[in-house]
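Hi support team,

I submitted a single chain yesterday and got back a structure, but I'm not sure I'm reading the token output correctly. Could someone confirm the output below corresponds to the sequence I sent? I've pasted both exactly as they appear in my results page.

Thanks,
R.
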Amino acid sequence: MDSNRTIVGTGLGMHITKRLLDAMNGEISVESKQGKGSVFTVRIPQERIGNKVCGNELAQQLRSSRFKGVLKSNRAQIMREYMPYGSVLVVDDVESNLYVARGMLLPYGLKIEAASSGFSAVDKIKEGNKYDIIFMDHMMPLMNGIDATKIIRGMGYTNPIIALTANALAGTSAMFLENGFDSFMSKPIDLRELNSQLNRLIRDKQPPEVIEAARKQMKNKKPVNGSVNGSQKKYDFSKIVVQDIKKALSVLEDILPKLNECDDARETSLQDADISLFTTTVHGMKSALLNIEEAELSAAALKLEQAGSAGKITELSADISEFISSLRVLLKKYTPEETSNSDDISDESRTFLTEKLSEIIAACKSVQKKAAKTALDELKSKMWPREVNELLDEISTYLLYGELKKITAAVDKIQQIL
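Hi R., thanks for writing in. Yes, this is the structure output for that exact sequence:
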């Protein structure tokens, strides 16, 4: 069952509509005929309170669903338990999504680990790690969340796994339950739903004395700031999204030549795997771009995702080049200035770079991806010339996709630069 290929829209519209209707004691019904379409009917009870015209300000609030005090009231209802006894693993190939999820989980005092691919998540379980909850992204490149969960369940892992999906459609719950998940949560993550899952699957499984001890511990600690949108500057957050853009560009630029060969008179050279990887990549960019408030580009990513899911190659060929160009402009906007050439590297930095590259090669030869990533993260924490940074980004992508042989070639290029 190729679940990703059958999904077209994000599926958020119906979920949001239902939530709004529930808040207003309304209801929604649907009549559908195959091949003809569907009719959705919404009913909202409304009392007449006078003849006063709503006015432009209230009309604008209704259009945007923004009302003063409502959001604050909803947030006030969330009582976060301090759970230092709990642990979670968040699996998502989009770095900015991991950052947002971490920000939402920090106030709980949990032990939080992250994995940027299905492969990495499987490796963590192979190493013997156990978590109270694994939050597993549904759509990831090469190994999606369903495949990763099947492998993990096949290893005898029984702890809860919750799917994270931006494609919540009718039948989603049953599909995830059939594939080894305990439940699912829609993206963007709702704080109240997250809080409920944490309470149910972590807090409520602890004896009363453990919960009480944690509460006493919390009273002696300063509040944890889990905000990712408050005091932090947009630019600071965008540095994380830069990594998402670079990974996406690496994939899209590799597929672009194959798309350019396509036209109505010729068969495409694209394989199903190419289309699947393309669709998953733009799906990830859709949420990453929203994270930095690039709504227009996010909408373009959604359009490409829908075309990829439907196999509309002609539409992809028409729009992909402009999308890639926009990503390059965005990347340049948010990428900090770097040194211009290898002559600017000090002898000490050269030695450090050479040592870490050797560690990466050794780790790849022994198939120790975690050790390779650790060495790579140490390298990427420092300032390097642009050409070196670009090759380090390539290594990061190859490591993500498990293409260890290509890492050796990239390391050789860096050594030639030096």
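A quick pointer for reading it: Residues 234-260 form the longest helix (27 residues). Let us know if anything else looks off.

Best,
Support desk
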